[in-house]
Design goal:
Layout lengths: L4 H7 L3 H29 L4 H4 L7 H16 L18 H32 L9 H25 L7 H9 L1 H8 L2 H41 L15
Length: about 240
């Protein structure tokens, strides 16, 4: 039997700082992802998100008990935002609404990358010669690094063209023939289910690895602008528990 993800997180190089950051960012990033869909839907003429009570910061509304239970057991979760494409005004509003969630995660990742590039030189005293306490410096840097990695992960994962992920809505909008071929037959639907299972299990590790590499490189590139000559930072790069 595998080790509980919380134990793995605590045993990782990040320790409690990594675990706390993971919990806050998984829940927060999912809530903001779904609110991104909701805000976009409202701007496109669909008031279903508001009528259904989903324009809220309450994680339970967006994630539901099942998602929160799975999160407690496995460290992963999901959310949902009800929309009604029939109420959209524009031809490609479905694409706009579908992309709004991943783009919210991209914005959050960029905010974390910029924040990290500003915080590290400030925390280490590279700018003003006076460093903050090492524990505070490490914990906030870890929080920002985990936020960057998780939000890049969510953006990449949700853009995959596999139902029910957001990328599948984009595929259906621009390539309806392909979408009908995949979802219009029993064989096509079975193939999509198999692909989704493979992506969600083995493929998720690949997405996490790509996201971690991309976010770390972005942070190091930003650091070269705010902290010339820097080659490392106090907090280790986060890893998936």
């Amino acid at each position: 039997m595998g080790t509980w993800w919380v134990t793995s997180a605590l045993d990782s190089g990040g320790g409690p700082a990594f675990l706390i950051a993971w919990i806050i960012w998984v829940i927060g990033a999912i809530v903001l992802h779904e609110l991104g869909h909701g805000w976009a839907a409202l701007s496109c003429g669909d008031d279903t998100p508001r009528l259904s009570g989903h324009m809220t910061w309450n994680p339970l509304v967006h994630m539901g008990w099942m998602s929160l239970i799975v999160f407690a057991l496995l460290g992963i979760a999901w959310g949902a935002m009800p929309v009604n494409p029939a109420r959209f005004r524009g031809r490609y509003d479905d694409v706009v609404v579908s992309l709004a969630g991943p783009m919210m995660n991209v914005a959050l990742a960029l905010a974390c990358i910029i924040g990290c590039a500003l915080w590290i030189p400030l925390a280490t005293g590279a700018w003003f010669g006076s460093a903050v306490p090492s524990t505070l410096g490490y914990n906030l840097e870890m929080f920002l690094r985990v936020g960057a990695m998780l939000n890049v992960t969510l953006a990449l994962f949700n853009l995959l063209p596999v139902p029910p992920l957001d990328g599948s809505r984009v595929l259906m909008a621009f390539f309806p023939g392909v979408a009908r071929a995949l979802m219009g037959t029993e064989l096509g639907r079975l193939a999509m289910v198999i692909v989704f299972v493979l992506v969600f299990t083995g493929g998720s590790g690949v997405v996490f690895s790509l996201a971690a590499r991309a976010s770390n490189r972005a942070i190091e590139s930003a650091l070269r602008l705010t902290m010339p000559g820097s080659t490392s930072s106090p907090a280790a790069s986060p890893s998936v528990p």
